[in-house]
């Protein structure tokens, strides 16, 4: 399956080259009209930006690491939203690597003026490894004499059966920022579609991404012996399961919306129920939900709930202390880009019901536009009871059904898959649910070794190590905001639960089970007139596993954000990624001039009270592998919620027509009445 | 709305009297064939049992508190299930109150021999308050001179507008077990369907249930003044919302199963996917799920997962220390009976999709059968991804969708509603989700009073107090059991997570957030041959709020079970209810001869290692009322999970045909392939 590299052919991507823009596919993907300031770059804007950057750099040549939207500064956006100014100029942000010098630079391009506005060289950092970058490993390793010898020693001579999953390198003291490193975890496949994770090999490879050199082949031995390949097959694809499927046991469930969906999409702006929001997407964070507003039926005005919601980082530290496993702690956002790894979704498989898809637009190393068709799924689901009450005296019943709006994406991070489900419900709640599935990262065991205590033997000779998944979504929160009122600036909010957190150091908060600690994001400038408490949203996070790596460990240093379930910082434009803008090969060094982290931001110890804040909420789970997780993992959910807390005057769902109204004044015999009028707003007997 | 008492007319119930048994309704409700030993008593068995009890008691006369199935002893049931013996004789269990003496007795009736097998007088206990019992309060209070005067003093003269929610009494030192007490919380309604919880009155009433006497009218004054009735209306019913509904904003979602449901029901035995189980129901616990088995596709045999699952107790302590609120801590299972309070469900309102309903059969105080039609809802739901993996190299995709089986009931406990959703999924997980909705318990505020810190002002003059909801489902667990193998006795299981819990005192365990404590229920006699760890199920409970009432408080004493998130005791027949068999007016006294609690059981400090155990899992939430919870609460979910942990050899869902298989060897352009074959088991390109 190895083939010559083609940097503009990436599975799942549609690449647009010069001259392609008038094709049917391109036309379908070009937005109509003027883009919204938060819209992704279009398939025309990306090559335009690339050309401006290339012209500016000439005669130096550049490799594009990313070309993505430069979001407007918040003040600019606010002025636009308030109707005070025209849309800010569209800008692109690029990270480039100069091909001649390997120098990394950050470039801001004004797409209107067609000018480079900023060009900033950044040192001692390594940008995200793109899919193109990661494609290097398998190709060069298969041809490397040391790899071929390492395989031959354990009886593998057909190199087309050797596969290498390319990972960012967690740590390797042998090289620094002079090399753009990646590591390869080696596997064997007995046949084309065989599950390689059943056949882990006992060596790993370090390569230089830019020079395409294998730097080291690290072979592990036990008592001086190589570890044999586990050859037993453990497969999950249809050609292997075949007769194992039971086809008539589950009958189909059909979910339809004969009158269409309840949400409206105009460009990338979405309205649904009482909500309005903008849906963005980029190579690094994937889905970005901005400017989330709600129409308050009691105050009859639009109120801002959240400025910006995305998953800005995640880390998966593995718990096995033996080499080479100490290098495994994937930062799937910062090191690989959740946008880049996004699946193109399929109706009935990934999502069910009436679906609206949006595409993801990214760039290639050559500066071409690369589109993932159907990267974002938007759909509604029934969500059971919104409310119900029965008067036990006479059987009077009222109930209404809740509804979910789900904005989702699924990514493949080598072996693992993650589903991201951003969910809004009619009671004003936002929930981020992650679903973890795909393949365990596996390793081979020598006959003298045991999987315990750092892993579980999921099949003979195969261990899967204990690990954690810690996700970090930030919420830029404006507890209240009247659009266009300069005297009440956007996002006047602080966080309090009896003990107010006043500075960003206090805002680095620990969870306390014994007191059932929770946090309210409140606006002290605006009291709920009824409750006489500040309006707010409550953070409900029961799933915040402590980082189990010890202080001083590599992952503790690199994943500073994962040390606390909550960090709060005052909002600053373009201060976003808590593990640093550059996560690959990062060390967690404090006060890095080009790569500050949330640990640095908190240490500034700035005021977070009654100002515009960003909350970084960590959540996740600790995964002790089970035999049930092999050969493919059942999806495991984990979630976090933000729930209105004295934000509205009353239940915000009372506008939803009830699905059941039952008045049964004649009889107390439930058999004699048919009092449920499904979907009927009001039964005639009640009006 | 007050009417003369008719003890055989209860809203939502169908009562069968002598001579009714040949009616159409009765025929529809009489099971065909021989009942399963765990089936509810039938509408014929209940009056049969009543007659046997009455004849035995004569000339004394009896009031029936309950007539319910006496489940067979476990050994008897096991022998029957193993095919070694015939079905054990059907037996009824009744709690009766002798009308002449108020003496309480427990009676066991053999329905085959038509004999009373046990008649045990029990002292210093009070049985559950039935709906018939609670009906007393409003009727007698409205006619009581002290109540009429208390109302007149605050300007209410039309007593038909005064409503009293009858509650069990949390504590009242003025009376002991010589009186069967209940308390009435008073409200006003301006019109027939007005929301009374917007008009709480400032007095409460204590009554004797048996003598139907008002014992005390406790009027609260603030600075010597009565508290005016909050008269502002806050309504949620259609006649009040009217034009407030927005009818076209949410389009219908239709969920259908054109080929029918995937589960099969034979009597009360259900099979679905790989699961088999029995669905029971009784007046106290509501749904009881027994004998849950799974067909293990790898071992090709049936394995027992859980012996018996139900919610055996819950407590709702309120946090306001002022009288009369210290009396509010409802035990909704033991004091009222979740079976008795069950709603008759309606398609499209309570449940959506293709539904199978089961009825609940209870008894009246006269010994008649009382049926709640559609008490239990059984349906399937799509559950998103079961698993997915994409090979990033070539875009090969496989995914399958998960499915839920949900067995649910909804109860009305005066102001509150609870939904109980027992859920099984294809990965072997059991989840109990509770949804809390209905009405806040409210109280009026004097103009000099503030709601804080013990409550929230949810509307002017109206406070809703902080409270907790703590649920206690026990799982009688048999970690593994080969049916009919006497050498491997049912339920050989103990609980361990590195630190084995060996005795029931050790089994009263605290949660520890810092170490992410969880518990595995394991069988040390049976190792998973792959993982080399004992087979087990993991308890996932992140929602176990500590009981916030102080040690020594009334509720701490009465709700001993709520002091710990987990208790484990060795299985004993008929030892089931952790707050005691008799919860009304209980004091939590230890070593009560007729009313032992889980605190007593744990103190026996018996072995729980490698024996047949019962796990009591406490979970719930702490509710600080919000303005959004008024005038009717949006449903709030809280759940607990039991997940297979090295119980199966591999992913137990691999028999599920995939919904997506995508192989795209020709092209890396996602646009050119249509590789999702929804519901097609295998795409032709892969075989």
TrEMBL record, chains A, B:
Keywords linked to the UniProt accession: Copper, Manganese, Metal-binding, Oxidoreductase, TPQ
Record note on cofactor: Contains 1 topaquinone per subunit.
Metal-binding is among the record's keywords: yes
Modified residues (2',4',5'-topaquinone): 416
InterPro entries: Cu_Am_ox_TPQ-bd (IPR049948), Cu_amine_oxidase (IPR000269), Cu_amine_oxidase_C (IPR015798), Cu_amine_oxidase_C_sf (IPR036460), Cu_amine_oxidase_N-reg (IPR016182), Cu_amine_oxidase_N2 (IPR015800), Cu_amine_oxidase_N3 (IPR015802)
Keyword Metal-binding included in the entry's annotation: yes
Segments forming domain Copper amine oxidase N3-terminal: 127-222
Post-translational modification: Topaquinone (TPQ) is generated by copper-dependent autoxidation of a specific tyrosyl residue.
GO aspect biological process, one term: amine metabolic process
EC numbers for this chain: 1.4.3.-
Catalytic activity: a primary methyl amine + O2 + H2O = an aldehyde + H2O2 + NH4(+)
PROSITE patterns assigned: COPPER_AMINE_OXID_1
Alphabetical list of Pfam families matching this protein: Cu_amine_oxid, Cu_amine_oxidN2, Cu_amine_oxidN3
Any coiled-coil regions, as ranges: none
Positions annotated as active site in the UniProt record: 332, 416
Ranges of residues in domain Copper amine oxidase N2-terminal: 36-121
Gene3D superfamilies: 3.10.450.40, Copper amine oxidase, catalytic domain
Cofactor: Cu cation; Mn(2+); Zn(2+)
Copper amine oxidase catalytic domain mapped to chain residues: 254-653
Subunit structure and binding partners: Homodimer.
Sequence similarity: Belongs to the copper/topaquinone oxidase family.
Protein name listed in UniProt: Amine oxidase
